[in-house]
Each structure stands twice: as structure tokens, then as C-alpha cells.
Specification:
Glutaredoxin; alpha/beta; 38% helix; binds FE2/S2 (inorganic) cluster
């Protein structure tokens, strides 16, 4: 009841208040048939191996350092969200009280406490993106999908959530959709992106594993490369076996995605 009253008050105060609050629908736990302490969850045999590999990176007395990568592993296994039982499993694996894991999972916006759509859109609303038009991008998404920030479309395809800086400020405004970055957006290009997703036509990521939607290759400015033209080669170019080409898929495989 308390949570319901708090949520109603925040709804009256607007989306930013909701986003900054623990009452955010994606952070607040609500018992559901598929999300109770008793709901069984375990890692698959393959993910058990990955979990041991992750924990092997830390000293025995710092196993708690594996909480974030293990939550990420659990979320990927569970279709993009974390039931309570998954958090409890992670707590048991690293040997901490479940509350220590709940604190992490509810602090970082990368973790979802409720099911999300097939395409989980994280829209950056921090200052550089905001001054470059993120509010217009958000409105275009909301209008096109008929949802508000924090909601999922009825067909389960899209969830929209506004988050803080995603580290692609040079190509603002931008969104992260699942693991991929779409940058240099306009209201028109973001709608085109949504329509492509509806048709199941995934945009190929650019050379650097992200996609500036205005034709840029990377984060060069509107006049192209104007500096560092004769600088040292980029690190990738130093490796003879890469020959100046980076395959985004191989980067993701290396990162364990
Ligand atoms: S401010 Fe949007 S990515 Fe940094």
C-alpha cells in the first residue's frame, strides 16, 4: 500500500521524479507468480562455467566483486530481467547477504527488476544529450510507440527508459537498444530505427561497434576529421592480424556477450 501511494505521488510529480526515485516501476519489487523468493532460478550448466570463470578473476576474499558481472549473466539468461531468485542465487554464489545484491541491482539502471520488451531502449537524458535534443527524441519515441518513459508496449516489443550518461556524449543524442548504441539521432531517424526493429531488420553496427545514424563513421565532427590526422595509429592498427578491421561481433564474443 505504501509503495502504491508513493508511486501515485511520484506520478503526479512527473517522469523525472519517478526516474530518480526508488519507486520507479523497474526498480520496485512486486511479488508476481514468476517473481517470488520461492520461484526457482539456477544458472544453466554453461553459465555455471562462466560464473566460475568470472569469480576466478577475484581473490577469494573479494568474491563480492563478481556481483555485477554475475547479475549481468543472470539477466541475459533470464530474458533481460532479474527475478528475486536470481539475485538470491548470485548472493549465494559470492557469499554475501541477499540485501547486498539487491542494493546493487536496484542502484544500476542496467539491471531490470521486471520484464522488459524485446528491444530495451535506454535513452540518455544527461546534459550533452539533453542540449542536443534528447527531449525531442524521447517525445518521438513516446508518440510513435504510444508509451511513456518506463513503460512497455502492449505487444512486448519495446520498453523505454531514460537513463544517465551512457558515455557516447560526442555523438549526442543517443539511445542504447539492448547492447547496441545508436547515435547522432534525430526524431526522424529514431522512428526509422523503431520501424526497422518492428520489421525485424536489425541495423548492422558500424566499424566501432556503434552506429551514428547520420552517416558518420565514428565520432568525427560535422566537418570530418580536422585534428590528429597524422597522429599515431589507433591501437587496433598496431596488430597485424586485425588489418585495420574490427568486427563488432568478435568484440562482443570477447566480452562474453
Ligand atoms: S550525455 Fe548522453 S551519452 Fe553522455
Amino acid at each position: 500500500m505504501l509503495a502504491r501511494r508513493g508511486a501515485a505521488a511520484l506520478a503526479r510529480r512527473g517522469p523525472r521524479a519517478r526516474r530518480l526515485s526508488n519507486f520507479h516501476p523497474l526498480a520496485q519489487h512486486v511479488d508476481r507468480p514468476d517473481n517470488k523468493v520461492e520461484t526457482p532460478f539456477d544458472f544453466t550448466p554453461e553459465n555455471h562455467i562462466r560464473a566460475e570463470h568470472i569469480l576466478g578473476k577475484y581473490p577469494a576474499n573479494y568474491r563480492a566483486s563478481g556481483i555485477i558481472p554475475l547479475l549481468d549473466l543472470a539477466q541475459r539468461q533470464h530474458g533481460g530481467w532479474l527475478p528475486v531468485a536470481a539475485m538470491d542465487k548470485v548472493a549465494a554464489l559470492v557469499g554475501v547477504a541477499p540485501m547486498r545484491v539487491y542494493e546493487v541491482a536496484t542502484f544500476y539502471t542496467m539491471f531490470n527488476r521486471e520484464p522488459v520488451g524485446k528491444y530495451f531502449i535506454q535513452l540518455c537524458g544527461t546534459t550533452p544529450c539533453m542540449v542536443c535534443g534528447s527531449e525531442a527524441i524521447k517525445k518521438a519515441i513516446e508518440d510513435h510507440l504510444g508509451i511513456q518513459e518506463g513503460e512497455t508496449t502492449k505487444d512486448g516489443l519495446f520498453t523505454l527508459r531514460e537513463v544517465e550518461c551512457l558515455g557516447a556524449c560526442a555523438n549526442a543524442p543517443m539511445v542504447q537498444m539492448n547492447d547496441d548504441y545508436y547515435e547522432c539521432l534525430t526524431p526522424k531517424s529514431v522512428v526509422e530505427l523503431l520501424e526497422a526493429c518492428k520489421r525485424g531488420e536489425k541495423h548492422e553496427m558500424g566499424r566501432w561497434g556503434s552506429l551514428p545514424m547520420n552517416g558518420q563513421v565514428s565520432c568525427e565532427g560535422p566537418r570530418g576529421k580536422t585534428s590528429l590526422g597524422n597522429g599515431p595509429p589507433a591501437p587496433y592498427a598496431m596488430r597485424e592480424d586485425l588489418k585495420g578491421e574490427v568486427d563488432p561481433a568478435s568484440v562482443k564474443a570477447h566480452m562474453g556477450y
